[in-house]
Specification:
The complex is a heterodimer of chains A (631) and B (320).
Chain A (H helix, E strand, L loop, with lengths): L1 H5 L9 E9 L2 E8 L14 H5 L3 E3 L8 E3 L1 E2 L11 E2 L9 H6 L12 E7 L2 E3 L3 E3 L16 E3 H7 L21 E8 L14 H15 L4 E6 L9 H10 L3 E4 L4 E4 L6 E7 L4 E7 L1 E6 L1 E3 L3 H8 L26 E3 L9 H19 L11 E3 L14 H5 L5 E2 L7 E2 L9 H5 L5 E3 L4 H11 L8 E6 L3 H10 L8 E6 L7 H9 L4 E6 L10 H19 L6 E5 L5 H16 L3 H18 L1 H5 L6 H19 L3
Parallel strand pairs in A: 8-19, 10-17, 11-12, 11-17, 12-13, 24-25, 24-26, 26-27
Antiparallel strand pairs in A: 1-2, 2-7, 3-4, 5-6, 9-18, 14-15, 15-16, 20-23, 21-22
Helix pairs in contact in A: 5-6, 12-15, 13-16
Chain B lengths: L11 H7 L14 H5 L1 H5 L6 H9 L3 H6 L1 H5 L6 H4 L6 H14 L10 E2 L9 H5 L5 E8 L2 E8 L9 H5 L5 E2 L5 H4 L14 E6 L6 H8 L5 E6 L7 H9 L4 E7 L9 H18 L7 E6 L6 H19 L1
Helix pairs in contact in B: 4-8
The chains are: A alpha/beta (631), B alpha/beta (320).
Chain lengths: 631, 320
């Protein structure tokens, strides 16, 4: 931290909130609110004379409230920057600190918070995690029994820089404990509180046990555990070492801690699963190894940065296996436990990775974006005519579309990833997508259904999953109906209902709507946009009276080649079970209804002429790039 | 060709999974919290082990499960459910196993209550009071006339005695804690200067060995009577004690939510506190009957409460 503070190219802004973030990759504008310290950073030299005279004591949060600090304070001696801060909630304005500071004149009671805007190229989120408060777990009596302490309190009590200078004491009588128990998984792997495994606490329990044993070899140490998880390099060896040192391990989750009212000793009740018996042991002190939980203000941070959260409140990565550092918003990266609980080596690795990923942005003059970005036809957008709409912005998983009533919707190309959800959602065909324009897709549909359409099974496949599934079915030589004809779009969100109607209008025997499984979507929530539309279509076709099974919705991953083949064969069976005349007759009856539903598409000018449309599009795009000056 | 359908056989584990709450069966990762939380294991049957029972169900060990004491002794107090980190409703799983065992012809080995038909009036108060739905009314011919009686399903009865206290006719009895067993114990040779006290204590609310030993050590002016549940305490017992010259009655029950028999402690607390108020109206001093809740972490509280009660009674005695 001190090294970072001294580095000429690093500025550390402490005591500062990020209030707003605007812009996109390489061109973020960030509003910062620096709170008032009431001490001038450029004058204060950290001598600490002010602390000596301050009459106010308040609990020191850094010491887990086990020791006091003054109203003018630094949380710990290695604080960066070494500038004191006055806690105005506690200060009584006696101005003794001003006197003590003397000629340095570093203390300034008139200081006010500063709001500034900064230009930022990329953002790394490293907000870390918080500790679970075990007081709701009444069975362990934290807060009620003085000798039940948390892991962080233990950390301060056995630290030589801590309030007891490393002399481990019981809070009830300041006696050195001889029998200490550590309970693992307090609040983690517990569906009542946090269902996840907190990753580092098994090693943390072992580390603390070994440390205490080294400080006092006579100490009797027991670790209560459900499973000891030591998957890291050298971790299992450390576990062996702890066992060799004579630390006791009891497999069994304690159900109750009771306290002897006179001695304040604690009794832990648990089943010893190795013995198959319930045991009760007495200890002088019990440490609860708490779960790690997200910071309390994750919601604020995620709304300021516009990044999403995974279940539980951890920030969401772009892809859990392949891109664990990136967020769905380009130029914002995650480091450390804010993305999910990590131990120190993993946090350091993710921090380094995030730094190198951002330096890629900072060192490049140009930034490559997806080729299939969306574009708005300004004259068709009804928002420009002063009407409320915003369906495109709602469908966008990346928040790349700004909609303000009175002006046309605006797509920020640097944020757009080209899923096409907005294109399909727009009821006025006012958005299109390069390489997947309505005209291009319609031309493909028409070409594939030109001959004997009633025999064909027409499949819409998403690029990332179902197309891969179909590919796998082919390369694995799975048998499936030769009547299948399919096209590729980027995401199931792009599968416009007009396309489905068009395929049926042309007389397709059956239509498949396929995409990724909900949790696998390449475009975060694109599949959800597609799935909602597909469900609506299923209901519409049912109402129209179409034979069930002619329109089918399936989520097929790239690894499910067999499923793709099976689904196509099932659909073939549906077509085979209906006489051909009936198939055609059904379409003839429904055609007027479907044409009525996609009426707007036919009314849109130039939609049928693929060549001119593409030319026009390129012209718009080049014009736009010229205007923005290569943003 | 005619198709022959093989009879669908459902495994034992699947049968349990199909019961309400059974879909959580496979979530159990054997942490042992339920076992150390369970009072039956602490007080009655050391072999009692819900964790092992769930394991046996998962491994399809049908007969062993039916014979296990865990199947039969669980009173569905649900102390384990709020403690379980996987939120498995263990008592409903055990209940499902018990139902299957009953269907297979096994029967409950527990000591249960019995109804004296010569006293029963068929009022159905027991039916409403039972936490387990064990009693029900039957029509039976007696001396050529149809009459209604209460009958207790021995497989559902857990033997708490709440119905014994509720029955206005005294027709229901539980071996060991019938009125005939308790009344002779409510007898203290009272001395003029020392207050005498009857303590009814629910066996489940006593959580530590020290407390149990302590109860043995009181002098003759304190009479301790063990009962299966504070719900067994009938205001008549308290009135009998007071009218036979005893100065006070103290009832120990469990915390709400910790009662071994679902709602026995609630019923008893209502009755005793109401009795206390009524005694006040009858110009007997309030505070002569008292109900005290003992929680799982309240070690050593029994002594304090008894001492406090004796002190209060001594005060009342002094005034009068």
């Amino acid at each position: 931290m001190v090294d970072a503070a001294r580095h000429p190219k690093i500025t550390i802004k402490t005591y500062t909130n990020v209030e707003r973030v605007e812009g996109y990759v390489g061109n973020f504008k960030v509003q910062l609110r620096e709170k008032a310290r009431f001490v001038k950073r450029e004058r204060c030299n950290g001598c600490g004379e002010c602390v000596k005279v301050c009459p106010i004591d308040i609990p020191n949060y850094f010491e887990m409230n086990l020791a006091p600090h003054k109203a003018i304070y630094i949380p710990m001696s290695q604080s960066v920057p070494l500038t004191y801060t006055i806690d105005m909630d506690a200060c009584i304005h006696c101005y003794k600190c001003v006197e003590a500071c003397g000629a340095l004149e570093a203390i300034d009671f008139s200081q006010e918070e500063k709001v500034t805007w900064e230009d930022i190229g990329s953002i790394i989120v490293a907000t870390g995690f918080n500790h679970f408060d075990p007081s709701p777990m009444t069975e362990y009596g934290y807060g009620k029994f003085p000798n039940v302490i948390t892991a962080m309190e233990m950390e301060r009590l056995n630290n030589s820089a801590g309030p007891t200078t490393g002399n481990l004491m019981r809070p009830s009588d300041s006696r050195n404990p001889n029998r200490v128990a550590i309970i693992n998984c307090v609040g983690s792997r517990d569906k009542r509180f946090n269902p996840w495994c907190s990753n580092f606490c098994c090693m943390y329990a072992l580390k603390n046990a070994v440390l205490l044993k080294q400080m006092n070899p006579e100490i009797d140490l027991t670790i209560y555990y459900m499973d000891i998880r030591t998957p890291g390099k050298g971790y299992e060896e450390f576990y062996d070492r702890a066992r060799e040192m004579g630390i006791h391990f009891i497999q069994g989750r304690p159900s109750l801690i009771t306290e002897d009212a006179e001695t304040h000793n604690l009794h832990i009740h648990s089943e010893d699963i190795g013995l198959g018996k319930v045991v009760e042991h007495e200890y002088d002190m019990v440490m609860l190894n708490q779960a790690g939980v997200p910071q309390p203000d994750v919601d604020t941070v995620s709304s300021v940065l516009n990044i999403t959260q995974s279940p539980g409140g951890w920030f969401m990565e772009y892809h859990p296996k392949l891109r664990p550092i990136d967020t769905p918003t380009d130029g914002i990266f995650l480091a450390g436990a804010c993305q999910g609980l990590k131990d120190i080596p993993a946090s350091v690795a993710s921090g380094s990775a995030a730094a190198s990923r951002s330096s890629r942005i900072l060192h490049s003059d140009e930034w490559e974006i997806e080729p299939s970005v969306a574009l708005v036809w300004v004259d068709r957008c009804i928002s420009a005519q002063g009407k409320q709409c915003g369906l495109c912005a709602k469908a966008c998983p990346y928040n790349a579309i700004n909609v303000e009533v009175g002006t046309a919707a605006e797509v920020i190309p640097a944020k757009c990833h080209g899923c096409g959800g907005c294109v399909a959602e727009c009821p006025h065909n006012a958005i299109t997508q390069k390489h997947f324009t309505d005209a291009q897709v319609l031309a493909q549909i028409r070409a594939l259904l030109a001959e004997n359409p009633e025999e064909k099974i027409f499949a819409f496949r998403c690029h990332w999953c179902s197309y891969g599934g179909a590919d796998l079915a082919g390369t694995s030589h799975f048998d499936y109906s030769a009547n299948e004809r399919g096209i590729r779009v980027m995401c199931s969100a792009r599968m416009d209902s007009d396309f489905i109607y068009e395929a049926f209008r042309l007389g397709a025997g059956a239509v498949l709507f396929s995409g990724c499984h909900p949790q696998d979507c390449h475009y975060i929530t694109g599949q959800r946009v597609g799935a909602t539309r597909a469900e609506r279509l299923l209901k519409t076709f049912e109402k129209m009276g179409m034979t069930p099974g002619r329109f089918r919705v399936e989520w097929i991953s790239a690894a499910e080649g067999d499923k793709y083949a099976r689904v196509i064969n099932d659909m073939q069976k549906v077509i085979d079970s209906i006489p051909r005349e009936q198939l055609m007759k059904e379409i003839d009856t429904l055609r007027p209804q479907m044409e009525q539903r996609s009426r707007r598409m036919y009314e849109t000018p130039q939609i049928n002429d693929a060549v001119t449309y593409s030319d026009k599009l390129t012209a718009i795009l080049t014009h736009k790039e010229g205007q923005d000056g290569g943003a | 060709m005619e198709e022959h359908k093989a009879p669908v056989t459902q495994s034992f584990a699947d049968q349990v999974r199909a019961a309400p709450g059974g879909d959580h069966l496979d979530l159990c990762f054997s942490c042992g919290t339920c076992v150390s939380k369970c009072l039956i294991q602490q007080k009655k049957e050391p072999e009692y082990n819900p964790r092992r029972l769930l394991r046996m169900v998962m491994m399809d060990m049908r007969e062993e499960t039916y014979q296990s004491p865990t199947t039969w002794l669980c009173s569905a107090c649900d102390l384990c459910y709020p403690a379980c980190p996987q939120e498995i409703h263990i008592s409903s799983l055990i209940g499902a196993v018990k139902t299957l065992a009953l269907e297979a012809g096994y029967s409950s080995p527990l000591e249960t209550v019995s109804v004296d038909e010569s006293l029963c009036s068929g009022c159905a108060i027991c039916v409403m009071s039972c936490p387990y739905g064990a009693p029900h009314l039957i029509n039976k011919e007696v001396n050529g006339e149809m009459d209604r009686f209460s009958e207790v399903d021995a497989n559902l009865c857990m033997g708490c005695g709440v119905c014994v206290a509720a029955c206005p006719m005294g027709a229901i009895a539980r071996p060991g804690v019938a009125n005939a067993d308790i009344l002779p114990q409510v007898k203290i040779k009272s001395k003029k200067d020392v207050p005498s006290l009857v303590v009814f204590i629910c066996d489940w609310s006593l959580r530590s060995v020290e407390d149990e030993a302590l109860l043995e050590s009181y002098p003759t002016n304190v009479r301790v009577i063990h009962i299966p549940c504070s719900g067994r305490i009938d205001p008549q017992l308290a009135l009998y004690a007071l009218s036979s010259g005893i100065d006070g009655v103290l009832v120990f029950g469990c915390q709400p939510g910790e009662c071994h028999y679902k709602r026995g402690t609630y019923v008893s607390e209502c009755k005793i506190s109401l009795l206390d108020k009524m005694l006040g109206q009858m110009e007997v001093n309030e505070g002569r009957v008292r109900f005290v809740r003992i929680g799982t972490q309240d070690w050593g509280r029994v002594r304090n409460e008894i001492d406090q009660m004796l002190k209060d009674l001594a005060m009342i005695k002094e005034v009068h």
